[in-house]
Fold this protein.
Amino acid sequence: MTAGVYLHVPFCAGACDYCDFYSIPLKPQDKRIAAYIDRLLAEGEQRLGEGKVTQIPSLYIGGGTPSLLGASGIGRLLRGLTALGGQRPGEITVEANPESMDAAFLRTCQDAGVTRISLGVQSFHEPSRRAVGRIGEGALLPERLRLLSDMFPRAFSVDLITGLPFQDASIVQQDIEHVLAFEPGHVSLYALTLEPGTPLAEKARTAGVRPGVLPGRDEADCLWIAGRDALEQAGYEQYEVSNFALPGKRSLHNIRYWRMENWLGLGPSASGTFINDELGTGRRMTNTADVDNYVASEKNQVLEEDLDRLTLMKETFLMGFRYIDGPDTEVFRKRFRLSIAACIPETLAAWRNKGLMEPEKNALTREGLLFLDPFLLDAFTEVERGIKIEDY
Ligand code: SF4
């Protein structure tokens, strides 16, 4: 079987107020790092064997903060994974944060065959960073971006966020100009969301964040659109809701998610999905989010969930229509023995009439992507209405 592999590193130097990824606070060189890498490699060996995964086209080490593993930790992890997987994946991405990414870390990544680094910048604007408890100093960013562009020229991605407190259009523009001066191959531009249960959502709910400090909804939308336009004017193509790339620099690993192709998730809270194209069904496996238990036990606690035909079809729409080319037509037909046009004809026609669907393919236009949620609501309603019980 062919599957991409995602590894979760659940450690951060602190906790950003807007973040809902699973992580625990940890300092560099903490002795728990070595035990964690041992356990990840053991899980990798076990799960690759159980899933009969023999081809790994892409490997993504995310978190949390993988650069907290340090040069020796990331080197050991990458060498161990390469030994497990046989052939080296064509794309290997490692996420990093500026305060824990240094030249030794990047050199080890180069030597181990890493093809992309993804750096969490979010914003240069110090009041915005402080207002959401962003870890690290904005003043460090130019030096770290210079290092990255020297060692991984155009082979790195930068994360930015719009809609932060104290942001306006000129600050978004400045953030983008600062980043583009280092010529990343790829930029992810996220609109801030108040994820339930995060400290930022709680502050907003209790009015701890004053009205006027967090941009209102319309203003936040305008900020993201201003950022999108600035990236496109600079030659970065929007190829997914939040992702922009120079030609040839799209993230192949993330495209696997948007096409709902097999991937395996390793580490606490990581989730993977295997698709059965013969039956049009899938299986989701999610590790419990408990790093201490994960390291202490030999067998993970994995929550398993069957994705029936209707659920998988809806997920294929959910993920596929995020992508600028839409869901892969041939993969869809092979998986469900139906065409996309046969499943949601009314939705496609209605959105095409609105000018928000590409004329020649089943994909939302760049403007249509701004209305992904109402589009999906229409598509789900139609597919639920149309699928008969015997289709399950
Ligand atoms: S560093 Fe990244 S993963 Fe860690 S808390 Fe901040 S946003 Fe979340």
